[in-house]
Design a protein that fits this description.
The structure is a single chain. About 40% of the residues lie in helices and about 15% in strands. It has 13 helices and 13 strands. With about 325 residues, the protein is an alpha/beta fold. Helix 4 links the parallel strand 5 and strand 6. Helix 7 packs parallel to helix 8, helix 8 crosses helix 9 and helix 11 runs antiparallel to helix 12.
Length: about 325
């Protein structure tokens, strides 16, 4: 019997191939695992929403998220308000949130100026970002991917001096809106550079949501040979409805950190009307249904999603949030 290519994939903790060529999920092992959710709604979500919210609402959003069991909540971005007006109140927000012990509140700092501002506002963890696509990098920061990485070195040096942890983002890991498919080797180059510079964790972003399980596997085959899965995260957009499938694929490789945005906040700037970030509620519901612990209270998370969508005057992009009938629904 011929085994389909996706089932004949290299041995991994989620798949067991039998003598007859069939495969079954080893959920007994997965159930012992825990996945950490990195909630990116307050930053990556809100910065792509057309409606500008007052700082007080952003602070309340983060404080409510802090009560859901999340361990990591990306709070804001220290970028120019001229280019990203949604994040113009970054210092005010970071100074005012109620910091809960055991929860990290990273902020995005694209350059040294941003890092210094974040540090002054009390940041204890920051993030830098690069692109696997030269075309995407040129459009966004006016230099190719390699040159963009060089710009991060002062940030990493300053962070190391002040004992601040740094997370790295790599965008366009499977596709670019300007050059199409992205070669896995291009992703590896950026991932290796961020790892060598000292990033404790590197998030792989399908920025325009064009990835499928097959293209994710091709990319992860190469990346996990270069950097251990324990240092990786995935950031999947749901533009084409593939986010959950791609997240599930990443679990096959031992990746146990997933970025998501409450109620799918953010949208996709490259596909008008399409959904953007994977909705945290949907990710948590799927993982809990697989017996994987996230530490997140889904009922509380859904209430936060409804709160922020009410403030934005929009409906939730989370299918789970729209269908939710109470905690009993999770037991089905």
């Amino acid at each position: 019997m011929l085994i389909p290519r996706f089932l004949a994939h290299k041995c991994n903790p989620l798949i067991r191939c039998t003598a007859t060529g069939t495969a079954s999920r080893l959920m007994s092992q997965v159930s012992r695992d825990q996945v950490r959710i990195v909630e990116v709604g307050p930053r990556d979500g809100l910065q792509n929403e057309p409606k500008l919210l007052p700082a007080a609402i952003k602070i309340e959003l983060i404080d409510r998220l802090s009560e859901t069991g999340l361990q990591t909540i990306e709070a804001t971005s220290f970028v120019s308000a001229k280019w990203v007006p949604q994040m113009g109140d970054n210092s005010e927000v970071l100074r005012a949130i109620r910091r809960v012990p055991g929860i990290s509140y990273p902020v995005l700092t694209p350059n040294l100026k941003g890092f210094e501002s974040a540090l002054a506002a009390g940041a204890e963890e920051v993030a830098v970002f690069g692109a696997a696509s030269d075309a995407f990098s040129l459009k966004n920061v006016n230099c190719d991917a390699a040159a963009a990485i060089e710009r991060f070195k002062p940030v990493l040096a300053a962070a190391n001096k002040h004992g601040v942890r740094v997370r790295g983002y790599v965008s366009t890991v499977v596709g670019c809106p300007y050059e199409g498919a992205v070669a896995p080797k291009a992703v590896v180059k950026v991932v290796e550079a961020l790892n060598d510079m000292g990033c404790y964790e590197i998030s792989l972003g399908d920025t325009i949501g064009v990835g499928t399980p097959d293209s994710m596997r091709r990319m992860l085959d190469e990346v996990t040979r270069a950097v251990p899965a324990q240092k990786l995260a995935v950031h999947c957009h749901d533009t084409y409805g593939q986010a959950l499938s791609n997240i599930l694929t990443s679990l096959e490789y031992g990746i146990r950190v997933v970025d998501a945005s409450v109620s799918g906040l953010g949208g996709c700037p490259y596909a008008r009307g399409a959904s953007g970030n994977a909705a945290t509620e949907d990710v948590v519901y799927m993982l809990h249904g697989m017996g994987i612990n996230t530490g997140v209270h889904l009922d509380k998370l859904i209430k936060v999603g409804r709160f922020i969508c009410g403030e934005l005057g929009r409906s939730s992009e989370s299918k789970v949030n729209r269908a939710w009938k109470g905690p009993q629904a999770e037991k089905v």
